[in-house]
Amino acid sequence: MMFVLVAGCGWWEKHQACTAATEADAAEWATLQSTLDAASAEAAQQALASRAAVETVESSLAQAVAAAPPDTGMSRGEAAQDAFTRASRVGGTAKGLSDARWTDWTMKTQEQARETDRLSEQASHEVERLELWGRAHADATMALVLTSARYEARVRSGDARLSLSLDPTSALSPSAAPEPEKVADLRAALGEASVTMAELRRNLTRVAGELDTLAFRVDSAGQTASAAAKNYVYLGFPPEAQVAQAAALAAGSAGKRATESAATLRAAVAKWRKDTDSDAVHAPPAVVDELARAVGLARAADEACR
User: Fold this and answer.
1) Cβ neighbours, 10 Å, residue 185
2) Cα maximum dimension of the chain
3) Are 191 and 259 in contact (CB under 8 A)?
4) CB atoms within 10 A of CB 223
5) Residues 146-194: pLDDT tens digits?
């Protein structure tokens, strides 16, 4: 009789512990779902705002390109060279030809310096453009992660809940899923978030490729300008050709700026590739903590009721 009584007390205590753990688990899981609802809605709004910002920049860029004057295929320096060549053929004197030579070099070098600085300036704007695309992609990724966790928290049950994480690739197909109509809105939101993130990833890859090409152009222009500056001392221009010396100095400075701009551009692209290849997700601390508590209580309930 005592044995039966002790066994009964043990069973009752076990039942009470299981009931308490189950109730705590249910309450915490409801809190988690509420937290994920709020966090995913906020992330979706942030992703929408970031996408609108980068699309505005792209639209402005397209309008600027469309409004740019057509390329004549000949720079001002090349046009000046043709003019001086024609003038020399019409019977110029030796001094006239000498003046035409250093004036021609000066105009071409000035043109090269201006073009190099233009590309360097473009590079600085492109770094900002890449940062906008990167931010939009990161926000879209966060929206996808939280929307996925929100969906999974709703459809998982039993042991499947114990492996819930803030990773969209960890989605399962629980056998005891809710009725389709009860999660139709969550499934639609998850599909939309997946499409948006994939689209931004494609565009970001495209922009990074464009920046790789621009970095090459900036570097090439900088090397050409630097070479022109270094060659000045070997050209034997007369002392009165001070404007040519000024052009050489300008080209040298432009070359240095271009080298720095190209390096900055390549570093920005490398950083984006490193960030997007990383699997780390910096979810809001409140969500991370709430998820850890919910999974912990689900595990405790499973052990108490086993």
Assistant:
1) 10
2) 132
3) no
4) 15
5) 998 888 888 887 778 888 888 766 655 555 556 666 788 888 888 899 8
Q: Is the Cβ–Cβ distance between 170 and 128 less than 8 Å?
A: no
Encoding tokens for residue 281?
């997700």
The count of residues in the chain is 306
Rounded to 10 deg, the angle between the 184-231 and 94-155 helix axes is 160
Residue with tokens 């700026």: 257
> In whole angstroms, what is the distance from residue 61 CA to residue 122 CA?
11
Q: Which amino acid is at 174?
A: P
Single pTM value for the model: 0.76
